Amino acid sequence: MNNAAYIQLFKLAGPEMLIALAALAVLLVDLTLMRGAPVRARRVIAVLLTGVGGFAAALYLLQVPLRAVSWGGLWAVDPLTQLVKLGLVGLAVLTAVLSLEADYTDHVGEHFALLLLATVGLMVMAGAADLVLVFLGLELTGLSLYPLVALNKAGPRATEAALKYFFFGALAAAVTLFGFSFLYGLSGTTNLAGIAAALRGRGFDPLLALAVVFSLVGFGFKVAAVPFHLWAPDAYQGAPTPVAAFIASGSKLAGFFLLGRFVALALPESGDAGRAALFTPGWVPAVAVLALASMVLGNLAALAQRDLKRLLAYSAIAHAGYLLLAVLALNGAANRPAALAALVYYAGTYALAGLGAFAVAGHVERHAGAAALNHLTGLGRRAPWLAAGLAVFLLSLAGLPPLAGFPAKFYVFAAALNTPHAGAVSLGLVVVALLLSPVGFYYYLRVLKLAFVTESEKRPAGPDAPGNSPQGGENRFGVETAVALLAAAGVLGLGLFPQWLLGPLQAAVREAGG
Amino acid sequence: MLPWTLYLSLLGALAVLAWPRRWAGEARWVALAFALAGGVCGVAGGQAYRPGAELLTLVRVPWIPALGVEYFLAVDGLNLPLVWLTGLAAVAGILFSWNVTEHPRAFFALYLALIGGVYGVFLSFDLFLLFFFYEVAIIPKYFLIARWGSTRREYGAMKLALYSFAGSALVFLGLLALYVNAAADPGAAPLDLAALARQPRDPTFQRWVFPLFFVGFGVLAGLWPLHTWAPTGHVAAPTAASMLLAGVVMKLGAYGALRAGVALFPAGVTAWQDVFLGLAVAGILLGGLVALVQKDFKFVIGYSSVSHMGFVLLGLVTLNPLGLGGAVLQMVSHGLIAGLLFAVVGRMVYDRAHTRELDELAGLRLARRLPFAAGTFVLAGMASMGLPGFSGFVAELSVLVGAWEARPAAAVITGAGIVVGAAYIGRALQKAFATEPPAETTATEEPEKLEPITLPERLGALLLLAATVGLGLFPGVVMDYILPGARSVLAPLRAGGI
Amino acid sequence: MNGPPWLSALTFLPLVGGVLVLALGERRVVPARRLALGTAWATLLLAAGLVPHFDSSSGAMQWVERHRWIAALGVEYHLGLDGLSLVLVVLATGLVPFALLAPGGPRQQAPLFWALTLFLEAGLIGTFTALNFFHWFLFWELSLIPAFFLIRLWGGPDRGPAANQFFLYTLVGSVAMLLAFLVIYRAVGTFDFLALAELGRTNRLSPQLRLSWGGEPVPAETLTHWVFAGIFLGLAVKVPVMPFHTWLPAAYAEAPTGVTMLLTGAMSKMGVYGLVRLLVPLFPEQVRALQAPLLGLVVFGILFSAATAFAQRDLKRMLAYASINHLGYALLGLLAAAGTGAADPLRLNDQAAALNGMVLHLFNHGVTAAALFAGVGWLEQRSGGRRGLEDFGGLRRAAPVFVGLMGLALFASLGLPGLNGFVGEFLIFKGAFALVPWAAAAALPGLLLTAVFLLTLMQRVFHGPLERRGVAGSDVTRGERLAWAPAVAVMLLLGVYPQPVLALTNATMVALAGSWRAL
Q1: Quick one: three-class SS letters along C223-281?
Q2: Cβ count near B452 (within 10 Å)
Q3: What is the number of structural domains in chain C?
Q4: pTM for this structure?
Q5: Do the beta carbons of residue A503 and residue B66 sit within 8 Å?
Q6: What single string gives the DSSP state of each residue in C205-219?
C-alpha cells in the first residue's frame, strides 16, 4: 500500500475519522479543560462537541460525493452506505442530546466518547465489504456499548444488564467468528463478493450450512432476533435510557443494514430449481425461522410487560422479525433493490420512532423513578407534548398512517411477497405478521390508553379542577421533549411524504448496484 | 372544491386544537363552522358532477412515486352521495355535542379529524390512499369513545379499535396481494382503483383475494359474526361519536367492500356470493332478534345498526345494479336514521334521564316530559322500520329486488327481518316512551323537570329528519347518481369478462 | 291529462290539517279542536263535491294525475278515482268527523289524537286514490302508524298487546305482499296498477315472472302461486279473512270508540279494495282457478265468525266478529264475480250485480258498523266503562231514543228489508246464487246466525228488567241525535233507494267484470 492509497482511505473514511476525532476531543476536553467544572456544564460542552463532530461528519457525507468506490475490496463507499451513515450520525447526535440529562454518572467524557466510538463502529459495519472489517465493526460497537450500559453504577439493574449484554455478545462474537472462518475456509477469501463468487453453484453442503448459521448468530444477536434476544429486555430496561435508545435505534439500523449486505453480497441467492434449491445456500430457511420466532415471541411477550422499556424491547424483537422479512426478500437479484430500500426505510423509520419512544420513557423514568406502565397514567395532561410524541411513536410502530411505520410496513411486506423462489414461505410469514399486527396494536394502544384515557384517582375530572394544570416541573420543555418532538416530526413527515426518504433511497440503491 | 371537504375538516381539527384555552367552551362554534363549510363544499362541489357521468378526477398527483402511489381524489355516482351524507352527519353530530364541556377542544379536534378521514376514504381513488385514510380514522374513533364515552367505554373503545385493526390487517394483505399482482405488469399506478376496475384478473386470484377485502372491510360494516364490536362500541361512545360511528364510519367498511371488493373482483363475488349472502341475511335477522331482547335502549339501536348494515352487505353481493344501488342508498339512509336514533337515545334521553334501562325509562313518562324526543323517535323509528315515505324504504326495497334476483331465499328471510325490525323498534318505543307508570305514582308525585330539548338538538334532529323524509319521497335525488355508478361497477361482470 | 290536482288536495288536506293541529298543541286545545273538525268537514265537503262531477257512465279513472317521480325505479305519482274508490273515499271522509266527535274521546293529549285521526284519514284517502304500487303502499303502511298509536295511547286496559298484535300482523302481511310485488316488479319493471291490470287482463303477467331458487328456475306456474299467495296474505290480514283475523277482536275492542269506527268503517275496506285493485286484475286466471278454495275460506269465515260472535260476552268483541262476518259477504260477492269468466252476457249481469252489491255492502257496512260501535261507545261512556252483554238490561225504558237508534242500526246490520243492509246483501246473493250456487247456499246460514246473535244482543241489552247498574244520566242528547242523523238517513234512504251509490259504481263494476273475463 502506498501513500496515495492511504490518502484515498482517509478520504473514504472521512466521516468515521471525524467522529473518532470528536470522541478523542470530548475525552480530552473533559479530562483537561473541564476538570472540576460542574457536571452539567461538562455535559453541555460534551454535547456541543459531539454535535460539532456529528455536524462535520454529516456535512462531509453530504458534500463529498463518492460514487461506489471500494478500497481494496475492504471498504465500500456508495450513496447507500453514505445515506445509512448519515442516519447513524443523526441518531448518535440525538442520543447525545438526550444524554444531556444523564445525571447518573460523573464520567461525562467517557460516556460521550464511548457513544461516539460506538457510532464509529456502526459506521464501519455499514461500510464493511470484507469479513474482517465486518467483525471489526461488530466488535468495536460491542466493546463501546458494554461499558455504556454499565455506566449507571448506582443502578443494580444496570450491572446485571451490562453483564448479560456482555456475555451474550462475547458468545455471539465467538460463534460468528467461527462461522466466518468456515466461510473463509470454503471460499478462500474474506471479501464478501468473493465469497459469493466462490460459493456460487455449489450444491448442498453441510459445512456451508453450518458456516451460514454460525455467521448469522452474530447478526441475530446484534438485531435481537429470537432466539438470540435474551439480553435485550434486560439491557433495554437496565441500561441508561439514552444508551438503550441508541441500542434500539442506531445499533438496529446498522445491524440490519450489515445483515442485508452480508446476505445479499456474500451468500449466493437460492437457485430457481424447486424446493431442494431453496435450501442450497441455507440462509433462507434460517432467516425465515428467525423471522417467524421473533415476530411471534416478540409480540406475544410484549403483551405481558408492565414496564415501558421492556415493552419496547419486546416490540423491538417483533420488529426485528418484520425486518427479517425484508432480509428474506433480498434473495433474488430482481427483487433486491426494492428489498434493500425497504429494509433501510423500515429500519430507519423504526430507529427514529424507537429513539423517540425511549426519550419519552427517559422522561417518565426521571420523574417517577422507573418507566413502569402505570407511571404513564395521566401523562397526556401532565406533559401533553411528550404524550403526543409517544402516541406518534407507538402508532408508527403499530403501522398506522399517517406515520412512517405504515408505508414502511407496506413496502417491506410487498417486497417480501415478491421474493422469488420462496413465495410460499414469504406469504406465510407475511400472513403471520399481519395476524400478529392487531396484537401489536393492542399493546401499543394500551400504553396510550394509560397516557390519555385512564384518570389517575387523585385528580378530579374537568379541565378547570385544581391539580389538572400541568404539574410542577414535569411539563418543562426539557431535552426529552425536544428530541421527542423532533423525532415525531420526522416520523410524521416520513409518513405523510415517504417519498422524501424513499426517493433518495431508491436512487442510492440503484447507484450502488444492489 | 370537493377536496376541500377533506382539507377543511383537517384544518378544522388543527384550528380547534390551536383555539385559545380561555375560550375552550366556544370551540364548538369553530368546529361547527368548519363542518358546515366542509358540507357546503361537498354540496357545491358535487354540482360539477352530472349524474351518470364518467369518473370526475379532482386531484391527481404523484404521492409516493417510489411505490407507484398517487394522491388521487375523484368522484363518481357512488361516493358523491356518501360525501353529502358525511357533511350532514358531521354538522348534526356537532349540534348534538353542544353540551360537551370536558376538554371540548380535544373532543372537536378528534371529531373533525375523524370526519376528515371519512371524507378521505370516500374520495380516494387510489387504494393505498383509501386504506391510508381508512386507518387514519381508527385512532380518533378510539379516543372519542375511550375518553368521552359512557358505559364500559374503555372496553368498548378497545374492542372497536382492535376489530377494525384486525379487519384492516386482512385488507392490508389483500392490498399487498393486489399490489404485487398489479406491479407485475408495468403500470403507472398499480393501485389506481379506476384502472384496476377495468383490468381483467385471474379468477383464481380473485377467489382468494376477494374475501380478504370483503371480510376485512366488512368487519367495520358489521358483517355477522364479526359485528360484536358494533353494539358495545356504539353504546360506549358519546352521542356524537355513536352517531358518526353508526352513521358514517360503518359505511366506510361497506364502501371499502364495494370499491375494493365487489368492483375489482367480480369473479370473486360470484364464487363467494352464497356465503356472504348468508352472512348478510344472518346479520339482518339475528341482529334484529338480539335487538328485540335488549334491556338497554342504546343496545337496541346498536344491534339495529347491525341489522340494517346487513341490508347493505346483502345489496353489495347481489351483483345487480338495483341491489348494489340499493346498498349505497341504504348506506346513506341508515346514516341519517341511525344518527337520529342515537341522538334521541344518547343525547335527548340519556343525558336527561341518566338511565338507558328500558324498564326504568318506562316509569318516567318521557313521552309527556320530552315530547320532542318522543316525536323524533317515532319518526326515526318509522324510518328505521323501513316504512314507505322514508329513505329506508326505497333502499331496502331496491336491495330486496336485487336479492330476489340473486337468491330468493335471502329475500324471504330478509322479509322476516323487516318484521323483526318493526318489532324491536315498537318494543323500544313503547317501553321508553309510551308506558304509563302505575296509577298511584302518577297521581301523587310530579316528577322533577327535565331540561327541555335545546335548540341545537332540535336543529340537528330536524336536519336529519328532513333529509330522511326528503330522500324517502324523492330518492331520485341520489338514486340518479347511484344507479349509473352501480351499473358501471357491474359492467365488467355483465359483459361476461371476468 | 293532468287536470286540477283535486285528488292530491284531498289527500294532503287532512295531512296538513293534522300537522297544524299538532302545532297548536295542548295549550290551545279549543282552536285545535276546531281546526281538526274543520279539516275533517272540509275534506268531506271536497270529497262530496267530487260526486256530482263524476262521470257515472264511464268505468275509467277520473281526475287522473300522473307525474314522473322516481325515474330510477320507474315510479310515477299516479292518482285516479273510479266508482269504487269514489264510494270508499266518500265513506272514509264521511266517517272521520263523526269519529272525532265520538263518545269516549281522548282525555289527554287530545290534539295528538285528532292529528293522528287526520293522518289516518290521509292514509285512507291516499290508499284509495293511488294507482301506483309505490305510493299506494306508502299510504297503506302509513295508515297503520296512526292507527297503532291511536290504539296504543288511548285504548282500553289491554291496549298494549292489542296494538302490537294489530301492528305486527298487518306488517307481516305487508312484507309478504311487498316481497311478492317485488317479484312482479322485477319481471315487468312497473309499479303502475293500470299497466299491470292490462298485463293481467291479457294474461301476460304470469308467464313473465321468473326466479331461480337454489340455482333452479322456478316454474312460472308455481311462482305465480307464491306471488299470488304473498299478495293475498297481505290483503287478507287487513280485511281480515279468517283465519288471519285474530288481531281484529282485540284491536277493535281495545281501541277508543272513534278509532274503532274508523277501523271497521274504513280501514277494513282497504283490504277488500286491495283485492279488487291488485289481486284480481293481476291474476284473473289464478283467481278463477282458486275460486273454490278461496270461496270455501270465505264461507267458513262467514259461518265461523257468526258463531263466534254468538259466544261473545263483550259487546265490542261481538260487533267485531260481526264485522268479520259482514266483510265475508263482500268477499263472497267479489269472488263470485271474479271467479267466473265465461263470456256470457247474462253472467256479466250477475257479475255486475255481485260486484255492485259488494260495493254497496261495503258502504253500508261502513256506516252501520260505525254507528253500532258509536252506540256501544255511548253505552260505555254512560255506564262508566262497562260494555258486557250482561251489564245492561231494560235500556228500552231508560233510554228509548238510544234504543231506537241502535235498533235501527242493528236491523240494518242484519239485513232487514227496507233498510240499507238488505239491498247490498240481496244483490250479492243474487249474483252469487247465479254464479256459484253452492257457496251462496252455504253462506246463507250465516245470515241466519247473524240475525240470531244481533237479536240476542238487542234482547239482552234493550229488553228485560232494567239493570240498575246500567246507564246513568239521560238519554241521547240533542247533539248526539244530530250526530246520528246522517247515519239514520243513510240507512233508511239507501234501504229504499240505493240508486245514488249504484249509479256511481255500476259502470265501473261492469268494466271491471268485463276486464277480468278470460280472453
Answers
A1: HHHHHHHHHHHHHHHHCCCCCCCCHHHHHHHHCCHHHHHHHHHHHHHHHHHHHHHHHHH
A2: 13
A3: 2
A4: 0.85
A5: yes
A6: HHHH---EETTEEPP
How do residues A54-73 score in pLDDT, each as one tens digit? 999 998 888 876 666 666 77
Indicate if C463 and C386 belong to the same structural domain: yes
Determine the Cα–Cα distance for residues B46 and B44; give it in Å rounded to an integer.
5
> Confidence class of residue C472 from pLDDT cuts 50, 70 and 90?
low
pLDDT tens-place string over residues C264-291? 888 888 888 988 888 888 888 888 888 8
Facing residue for B388 by CB, picked from C72, C142, C182: C142
Q: Are residue C321 and residue C257 in the same domain, yes or no?
A: no
Q: Which domain holds residue C405?
A: 290-519
A108-127 helix and A39-63 helix, angle to the nearest 10 degrees: 20
Per-residue pLDDT at C203 exceeds 60: yes
Q: C414 and C480, same structural domain?
A: yes
Q: Are residues C255 and C306 in the same domain?
A: no
B441-B443-B448-B452 Cα dihedral, nearest 10 degrees: 110
Q: Which residues, numbered 103 to 162 in chain C, qualify as contacts with chain B under a Cβ-Cβ cut-off of 8 Å?
A: 109, 134-135, 137-138, 140-142, 145, 148-149, 152-153, 160
- Contacts of residue A99, defined as CB under 8 A and 6 or more positions apart, other chains included, come to A43, A47, A111, A112, A115, A242
Mutation site for B-interface testing, chosen from C141, C185, C191 by largest number of B Cβ within 10 Å: C141
A402 pLDDT above the threshold of 70: yes
Whether C371 and C477 map to the same domain: the answer is: yes
Contacts with A446 from chain B: Cβ below 8 Å: 158
Interchain contact C/B (3 or more Cβ pairs less than 8 Å): yes
Asked whether residue C103 falls in the same domain as residue C122, the answer is yes
**Is the per-residue pLDDT at A275 higher than 60?**
no
Mean pLDDT across B464-483: 86
Residue B498 pLDDT > 50: no
Predicted local distance difference test score (pLDDT) of residue C470: 57
Q: Which residues 325-364 on chain B approach chain C with CB closer than 8 angstroms?
A: 325
Domain boundary among C236, C254, C288: C288
Q: Are B138 and B164 within 8 A, CB to CB?
A: yes
- Taking CA atoms, what residue in C is nearest to B434? C153
The set of cell numbers assigned to A463 is 379541565
Q: Does A468 touch chain B (CB under 8 A)?
A: no
| ipTM of model over 0.85 | yes
CB contact under 8 A, C211 and B483: no
Indicate if C179 and C324 belong to the same structural domain. Answer: no
